[in-house]
């Protein structure tokens, strides 16, 4: 484990990805005067109040109007500005999807989309506020980079890494993580498109992203006690997928479990299965949401209801090793 | 009126005639297309590109250029004809409408020189243009942004998000031109989903509004010269136009929103439009 100095923003961000993203917005704006934040009534959701007060000219409030916000982001990008659109995952993907597809993805504009409250972070809020299809949508946008940081620290790294992107990107933000600060394990080596190998093992691989990285680690540690070697990959970049890491896992462990807070169709599991089906068919199990709208409840309870848990991941690994 | 002024207006009318003839040419080559809304927009496009907008056709990405977004992207034949006449693209591109690997399809593609945004899905242009206008303001640039919207297009709710936001942001460097030809794909706008009182609506949203005859070149030029209509409000030009303007059998009919153009139709259309100078 790398000994990583805890930056000041981590305590400020209370280990919440959306606040870590907001911190990065401020830092990016400090480095580049073309950076501009766009809020869709999301100033406090992203912790941007201080940024707004310090640099009011660098934050555009679009109101509760995601279509307009997305179009504005595209238009700004055409003029050389670097818009960072801060939205709610369920709304900024589907409400403004045509603007996202045409004005941002098709027109290939350098727009960063931060999507807070993804997955079932707002489990208690009901299906209108869940985003468990966003990765499937965003993966199908040409030109788009799709990132699912595992925790607040990695969110900050991912947001800062968008500096080097020249097309659109989608950063999927989770909620507050009660679990280990998993990205500490990977330290500061974050690189877009390169999976973090968090555990070594030769019997089975768990490829996880976002909130399910921590349960994947816990499952691996539990199985290690039974003598099962579980490799764990934190696949923070869904697109472009780290093909080499997936193919190596297939070749070296022969069995793969994917785990994501998303439907099992079209997201991380889909991406891995599409690759392996063509390159190296491999026994797989997919952990995630089934093809239904989610029940209401606290996030962790809802996750467990659908088998997005340490126990279910461990069970899937055992199942593959039978 | 001075003779210079009259010559200018006559020249722009001639530009518009070139655009209309080239719309028919492009559609004839492709077998058909959106003739109605391309023809209704032609006079305004001529006034924009050959009088109003500050552009460098030999440097299409000049950072300080004025921006024009064709939100009613189905009028791309008219935009292409305009860009060719302005020198952004080669005239031969007009014979590549809809063609395999052409830059010139039914709707504008940002990859073609002079096209500021890929459009075609309706209700997108206003917000994109707002972003451009904000980009100018934030970077201390004085370029102006203009977006043309179709009347049927105003049925898309996203326009009203944009209308509210642009006024709230006091974007006086932004102009919308409504090509109000009163006809959409399946019938009359007023019967399908009426816009009236459209002037009052935009005023109520906080826009400075002028109504003009969009085929009266002197009126179009006068309105563009008067921009911005207010120092702290975005400007709206409601241009009353005729769908299919210039060719009698195509005028004012939803059947010619998008139709086939045979050799016979093409010859008749060119004969009615007359020869440009």
What tags apply to this protein structure?
heterodimer, A: 322 residues, alpha/beta, Rossmann fold, 2 domains, seven-stranded mixed β-sheet, five-stranded mixed β-sheet, 12 strands, 19% strand, globular, disordered N terminus, B: 277 residues, five-stranded parallel β-sheet, two-stranded antiparallel ribbon, 13% strand
Textual characterization of the structure:
The complex is a heterodimer of chains A (322) and B (277). Chain A is of the alpha/beta class and 322 residues long. Chain A has helices at 8-12, 17-31, 49-54, 66-78, 89-94, 97-106, 134-139, 152-161, 183-186, 213-225, 243-253, 268-279, 299-305, 310-321; strands at 35-39, 59-61, 82-88, 112-116, 145-147, 169-172, 196-199, 204-208, 230-234, 237-239, 255-263, 283-289. In chain A, helix 2 (17-31) runs parallel beside helix 8 (152-161), helix 4 (66-78) runs parallel beside helix 6 (97-106) and helix 10 (213-225) packs across helix 14 (310-321). Chain A has two domains: 8-172, Thiamin diphosphate (ThDP)-binding fold, Pyr/PP domains (Rossmann fold), CATH 3.40.50.970; 193-321, 3-Layer(aba) Sandwich (Rossmann fold). Chain B has 277 residues and is an alpha/beta fold. Helix content of chain B is 41%, strand content 13%. Chain B contains ten helices and nine strands. In chain B, the strands form three sheets. In chain B, strands 2-3-4-8-7 form a five-stranded parallel β-sheet, with helices on both faces. In chain B, strands 1-9 form a two-stranded antiparallel sheet. A two-stranded antiparallel sheet of chain B has the order 5-6. In chain B, strand 5 (183-184) and strand 6 form a beta hairpin. The radius of gyration of chain B is 17 Å and the shape is globular. Chain B starts with a helix and ends with a helix. The mean pLDDT of chain B is 97. At the A-B interface, helix 4 and helix 6 of A face helix 5 and helix 6 of B.
């Amino acid at each position: 484990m790398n000994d990583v100095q805890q930056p000041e923003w981590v305590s400020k961000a209370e280990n919440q990805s959306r606040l870590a993203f907001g911190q990065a917005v401020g830092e990016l704006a400090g480095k580049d005067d073309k950076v501009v934040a766009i809020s869709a009534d999301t100033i406090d959701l992203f912790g941007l109040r201080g940024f707004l007060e310090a640099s009011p000219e660098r934050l555009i409030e679009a109101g509760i109007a995601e279509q307009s916000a997305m179009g504005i982001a595209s238009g700004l990008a055409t003029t050389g500005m670097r818009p960072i659109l801060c939205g709610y995952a369920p709304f900024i993907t589907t409400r403004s999807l045509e603007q996202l597809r045409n004005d941002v993805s098709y027109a290939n504009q350098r727009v960063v989309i931060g999507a807070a409250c993804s997955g079932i972070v707002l489990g208690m809020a009901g299906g209108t506020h869940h985003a468990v299809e966003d990765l499937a949508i965003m993966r199908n946008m040409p030109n788009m980079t799709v990132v699912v940081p595992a925790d607040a620290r990695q969110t900050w790294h991912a947001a800062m890494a968008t500096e080097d992107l020249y097309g659109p990107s989608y950063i999927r933000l989770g909620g507050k993580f009660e679990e280990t600060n998993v990205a500490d394990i990977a330290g500061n080596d974050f690189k877009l498109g390169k999976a973090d190998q968090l555990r070594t093992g030769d019997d089975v691989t768990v490829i996880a992203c976002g909130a399910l990285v921590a349960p994947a680690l816990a499952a691996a540690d539990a199985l290690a006690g039974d003598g099962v070697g579980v490799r764990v990959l934190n696949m923070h970049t869904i697109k472009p997928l780290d093909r080499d890491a997936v193919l190596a896992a297939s070749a070296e462990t022969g069995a793969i479990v994917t785990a994501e807070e998303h439907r099992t169709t079209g997201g991380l599991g889909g991406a891995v299965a599409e690759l392996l089906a063509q390159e190296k068919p491999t026994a797989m199990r997919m952990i995630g949401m089934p093809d239904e709208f989610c029940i209401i409840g606290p996030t962790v309870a809802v996750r467990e209801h659908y088998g997005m848990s340490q126990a279910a991941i461990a069970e899937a690994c055992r199942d593959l090793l039978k | 009126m001075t003779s210079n002024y009259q010559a200018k207006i006559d020249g722009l009318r001639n530009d518009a005639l070139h655009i209309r003839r080239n719309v028919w040419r492009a559609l004839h080559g492709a077998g058909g297309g959106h003739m109605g809304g391309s023809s209704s927009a032609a006079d305004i496009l001529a006034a924009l590109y050959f009088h109003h907008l500050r552009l460098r056709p030999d440097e299409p990405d000049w950072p300080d250029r004025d921006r024009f977004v064709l939100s009613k992207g189905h009028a791309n034949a008219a935009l292409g004809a305009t860009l060719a006449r302005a020198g952004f693209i080669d005239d031969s591109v007009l014979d590549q409408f809809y063609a395999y690997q052409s830059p010139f399809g039914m709707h504008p593609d940002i990859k073609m020189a002079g096209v500021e945004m890929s459009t075609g899905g309706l209700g997108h242009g206003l917000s994109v243009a707002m972003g451009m206008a904000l980009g100018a303001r934030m970077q201390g640039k004085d370029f102006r942004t203009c977006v043309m919207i179709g009347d049927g297009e105003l049925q898309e709710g996203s326009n009203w998000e944009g209308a509210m936001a642009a006024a709230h942001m006091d974007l006086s460097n932004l102009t919308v031109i409504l090509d109000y030809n009163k006809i959409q794909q399946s019938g009359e706008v007023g019967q399908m989903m009426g816009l009236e009182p459209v002037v009052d609506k935009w005023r109520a949203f906080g826009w400075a509004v002028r109504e003009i005859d969009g085929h009266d070149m002197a009126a179009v030029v006068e309105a563009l010269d008067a921009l911005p209509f207010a120092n702290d409000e975005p400007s709206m030009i409601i241009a009353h136009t005729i769908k299919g303007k210039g060719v009698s059998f195509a005028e004012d009919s939803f059947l010619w929103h998008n139709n086939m153009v045979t050799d016979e139709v093409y010859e008749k259309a060119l004969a009615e439009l007359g020869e440009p100078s």
